[in-house]
Amino acid sequence: MRETLNQPLPPTTTLSPTDSPFVSRHGGFACEGVSLRDIAAAVDTPVYVYSRADLTTRAAAFVAAANETGGDRALVCYAVKANGNPALLEVLAAAGLGADVTSGGELFLALHAGFDPQRIIFSGVGKKAAEIGEALQAGIRALHVESEMELAAVATVAERLGTVAPVGVRVNPNISAATHPYISTGLHGHKFGVPCERAVAMLRSAAAHPWLRPVGIAAHIGSQITDLDPFAQAVRFLVELADEMGREGIPLEYIDAGGGLGIDYQGPAPAAAEWVRTVGPLVAAAGYGLVVEPGRSIVGRAGALLTRVIYTKAQGDKQFVIADAGMTDLIRPTLYQAHHPIAPVVERPGEAIVVDLVGPICESSDFLARERPLPPVEPGDLLAVLHAGAYGYAMSSNYNGHLRPAEVLVEGDAFRVIRRRQTYDDLLTGT
Ligand code: LLP
Fold this sequence. Notes:
Elements: E1 22-25, E2 28-31, E3 34-35, H1 36-43, E4 47-51, H2 52-70, E5 75-79, H3 86-94, E6 98-101, H4 104-113, E7 120-122, H5 129-138, E8 142-145, H6 148-161, E9 165-170, H7 196-208, E10 212-218, H8 229-247, E11 254-256, H9 272-285, E12 289-292, H10 296-299, E13 303-315, E14 318-323, H11 332-336, E15 342-344, E16 353-358, E17 367-374, E18 382-385, E19 406-411, E20 414-419, H12 424-429
Parallel strand pairs: 4-19, 5-6, 5-12, 6-7, 7-8, 8-9, 9-10, 10-11, 11-12, 14-16
Antiparallel strand pairs: 1-2, 2-3, 4-13, 13-14, 13-18, 15-18, 16-17, 19-20
The site of ligand LLP has 22 residues, from helix 10 and helix 11.
């Protein structure tokens, strides 16, 4: 049956982006020059597939826009939490990015991938003493602290190691950004950063401390934000604060506008260059170095989750499509009601049917899409869940004894496995 479908296909309606590396071709969907069917045949499903060309194009766009607005003081720190696959990190380090890490584990991955320590920033509300020590020993650009207690912990470790710690303070600007509440971070009710007055006090005490050196301030107001205004507001707020510190004789080197630029899962999203041109000139005009920490906007569109339909089932007033990937592979739909474009790898003719695309996990919240019109599918068909490069594999789990999927990197007409699928033995060893 499938072979008869192996012919030029009309563009699918479920795919919005025109410049995606995932394209409908003769014989079905491909990533760059490689058919997704070939990948599934060689590696099995579920599997994450990434395009190297997409990664390098997006990294280059960020670097170019940052250099254009911020000159050679601009720093684009890729947020490793979005996707920490070692092979992808190597590609991004080689493309000239720095890294924003949030744990000792991410610091280890970033150093291993070859990111220059002077281009690494360590963010996060709960750094432990051992992690602080690792960062100081690696000689990273700065640790961004988020509380008075954390600042004291950095000072203690720095003194013990006999090294002056470069610190930034993450400020909570109390700015609301229109996004899902779980990924909104810039309001005082959130655990992140400290309000302005406390940031000032922390910067003063860092400046007065022999083992601390204040170097910058940062804000990160949330993720998947497609309106540029809140970013501009946050940066204006940071510039004012940095200027105030400068007048006190505490000159800061850089302003970190955070990450958070959204991508076009469903509606349009600004390009990297638009975002950087919104925040960059405000920072540069005030005489500071620009730092940005994009994650999703670098890797999000470069990846797709390839899954195979196992069964279909009609129940109540629902049509269920049961696939071999679910919330353990991609938790974003479950956790944030996120919408990912989904396309059959080889589209069957016929009317679209409204379905719930679900996984094999024992939770009613285990779905990849709900009430979604999809072309007809049958067991054995492959589906590509698109825009899944960010916070996909990174948030996967072994719940229900489900093995973590493989990951594949496509490079032109070739592909290679960059993380093997887990095996049952891995469930015993905890890897
Ligand atoms: N910098 C900091 C301090 C962050 O906390 C984050 C993300 C970023 C940068 C990168 O943000 P991005 O450019 O990727 O939006 N799991 C959620 C997203 C959580 C984001 C957490 N922090 C999701 O799947 O939507």
